[in-house]
Amino acid sequence: MSDLEEKLLDSLRDGRLPCAFAFRVAQEMETGPETIGAEADRLGIRISRCQLGLFGYKAFGRKGILHPFDKVPEGLAVAMAAAADGEKIPCEAVWRVAGEHGLPRPAAGSAAETLGLIVDPCQLGCFLHFKAHHK
Questions:
Q1: Is 23 in contact with 49 (CB distance < 8 Å)?
Q2: What pTM was estimated for this model as a whole?
């Protein structure tokens, strides 16, 4: 068993790999998140607890934990639109916008949902086209 396999298996919670743990393993192994996602895929490990709140929260009785805004604040909406390519916005860009606006990542994920943006691609490669609308 490789060191990476061992770290991934040791990081599982309820049989799944939380997104934040995947990023921690990437940092520890000095590799990119896409490598971690590919290895998890190869091992049949599913990612949970998306840091944007999009998926992996079955314990809460929902796929995700998004809470749409009544109205996205103008500065945030402008930043999200600038980071988007049409209807799509990369996960990495949502993280960056969240940081620039001092927001928790799930709040930025909620803003993406409210704006009707598709988060694509995921940094871990979890989905190809995930429309945030999933109530």
A1: no
A2: 0.90
